[in-house]
Design a protein that fits this description.
Elements: H1 12-25, H2 39-42, H3 47-51, H4 54-64, H5 69-89, E1 94-98, H6 105-108, E2 115-120, H7 122-134, E3 143-147, H8 155-162, E4 170-174, H9 183-196, E5 202-208, H10 210-213, H11 224-230, H12 244-250, E6 258-259, H13 261-268, E7 284-287
Parallel strand pairs: 1-2, 1-4, 2-3, 4-5
Antiparallel strand pairs: 5-7, 6-7
Helix pairs in contact: 1-5
Length: about 290
Amino acid sequence: MQTRRIETATSRTAEFTCVYRAASSLERSACYHSDDVLAPRLLPGLIQPLVRLPWIRRFYSHVIAPRGTYEYVIARTKYIDAVFQDALAAGFDQALIFGAGFDTRALRFPAGQTRIFELDAPATQAAKLGQYRRRGLEVPSGVAFIPIDFERQALPARLVEAGFRRHLKSLFVLEGLTMYLRPEAVELTFRDIHDFAGPGSRVVFDYVYASVLHGESSIYGGEISRTVAGADEHWLFGLEEGAIQPFLARHGLRLLDHKTPAQLEQAYFTDAAGRRLGRVNGAHCLVL
């Protein structure tokens, strides 16, 4: 099997996402502002002052980046933040963040009795922990970091070694992950989730439309698949429109919420007068 960049170096798409979150935390507009106040502190020193300049943020997010990507990351961050906080408030036993990248929820939200586990490729996880140390950001004692190669290592064994327990009420977060896994790895991951989940557990994840993978789609921002391929982090998995219900049923999951790009625009980028203030990349959907 060919070695991919993510196996030996920090994920570029994780870095891009961190820049988006950092930029969003500095926005004044209510729809564009999100609350990842730690993201700017995870950026390299030379980038930190640049992202604080509004015209740089606009140029990066609306000229360089694929159309609607900035808006999608903002909507996804807000959505999953709310799901995560709900789980902590409800006293979930544990939360597992797959492909955590530069996610800071374990530091931003008081976990209470909930144990938090982060899974990621070793190089990306090491880069994030290095930034935590350099910026003097203290990691709560209840957080465990698990390096893993999702394609080559058995997930159950890694989880058990780290203290993640079966059949407890758990939150599983797969943010910006499924599209980078091979279809067989996605299927295996969701089977493992089913085997570990206890009563009342929840799964939140996003996926891309399969048509974008094949280059057959003219949807808004569809060029994003070429952008991630240029970063040597190709999209490998997607679902056809309308295929989410059979996918969930196959893994013993019940759909609680499904957000299309249009629904994300309605929820996060539409004002009280019904005016659309931002357009979300059309390749992605969010699922709870």
